[in-house]
């Protein structure tokens, strides 16, 4: 018997290596609006959480200034940056196999819904999933919210749902919703950050995701 009915995948850092486009567009937007540009190690921390949180934490940009930044960033990102990414090796075979085995599959991302769909459409991921669950247009949707939307959509119990992600925000969302969590170490977060939010199971590759799910039966 399968341990899960629904499997949720984060997008940036779990399904796609999206940092080239995200970092370039954040840098371009900061320069266009005449803000200082942080060093790349700081910029990489923007990948994963809602943009509004990172702007406040790392750049001190809040309120209407943050709204203006996000509007400008979206124009740049949706025009070109969204396509500066790639799907991690081994994911297409994994997703195909999981669908054949009868799992419901969904993307659960803090990325805005329209941007998430642009990514999954462009890279051929949309047909691999039953649902793309992104955040609302105000960019304040938490991981918990997008996870709960997917769980409610499929009428699945949290304990029968697996969340797969690469950052503390994914682990925290799983902890809040009450789902098991599997951390991937090939993305943008660290093992230590995820462990701080209850993560105990980790894999290094897409192939290992499948092996872990098989072992959980």
Characterization of the model:
The longest helix is centred in the first third of the chain and has 17 residues, at 63-79. This protein folds into two domains: 6-17 and 87-215, 3-Layer(aba) Sandwich (Rossmann fold); 19-83, DNA polymerase, domain 1, CATH 1.10.150.240. With 217 residues, the protein is of the alpha/beta class. Strands 5-4-1-6-7-8 form a six-stranded parallel β-sheet, sandwiched between helices. Helix 6 (113-122) links the parallel strand 4 (104-112) and strand 5. The chain contains ten helices and eight strands. It has helices at 19-32, 40-43, 51-59, 63-79, 91-100, 113-122, 143-154, 168-177, 191-195, 206-215; strands at 6-9, 16-17, 86-87, 104-112, 131-135, 161-165, 181-184, 202-203. Helix 1 (19-32) crosses helix 4 (63-79) and helix 7 (143-154) packs across helix 8 (168-177).
Helix and strand content put the structural class at alpha/beta
Name the shape in a single word: globular
**Total strand segments:** 8
Helicity range of the residues? Answer: 40-55%
Q: H/E order of the elements?
A: EEHHHHEHEHEHEHEHEH
Strand arrangement within the widest β-sheet reads 5-4-1-6-7-8
Give the arrangement of secondary structure elements.
Layout: E1 6-9, E2 16-17, H1 19-32, H2 40-43, H3 51-59, H4 63-79, E3 86-87, H5 91-100, E4 104-112, H6 113-122, E5 131-135, H7 143-154, E6 161-165, H8 168-177, E7 181-184, H9 191-195, E8 202-203, H10 206-215
Parallel strand pairs: 1-4, 1-6, 4-5, 6-7, 7-8
Antiparallel strand pairs: 2-3
Helix pairs in contact: 1-4, 7-8
């Amino acid at each position: 018997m399968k341990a899960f009915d629904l499997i949720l995948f984060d997008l940036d850092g779990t399904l796609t290596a999206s940092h080239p486009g995200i970092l370039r567009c954040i840098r371009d937007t900061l320069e266009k609006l005449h803000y200082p540009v942080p060093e790349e190690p700081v910029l990489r921390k923007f990948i994963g959480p809602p943009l509004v949180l990172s702007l406040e934490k790392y750049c001190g940009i809040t309120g209407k200034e943050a709204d203006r930044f996000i509007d400008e960033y979206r124009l740049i990102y949706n025009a070109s940056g969204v396509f500066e990414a790639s799907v991690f090796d081994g994911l297409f075979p994994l997703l195909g196999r999981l669908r054949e085995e009868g799992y419901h599959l969904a993307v659960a991302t803090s990325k805005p819904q329209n941007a998430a769909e642009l990514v999954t459409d462009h890279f051929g991921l949309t047909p691999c999933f039953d649902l793309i669950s992104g955040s609302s247009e105000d960019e304040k949707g938490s991981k918990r919210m997008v996870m709960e939307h997917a769980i409610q959509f499929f009428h699945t119990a949290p304990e029968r749902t697996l969340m797969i992600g690469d950052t503390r925000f994914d682990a925290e969302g799983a902890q809040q919703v009450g789902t098991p969590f599997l951390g991937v170490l090939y993305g943008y977060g660290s093992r230590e950050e995820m462990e701080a939010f209850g993560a105990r199971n980790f894999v290094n590759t897409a192939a290992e995701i499948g092996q872990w799910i098989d072992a959980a039966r």
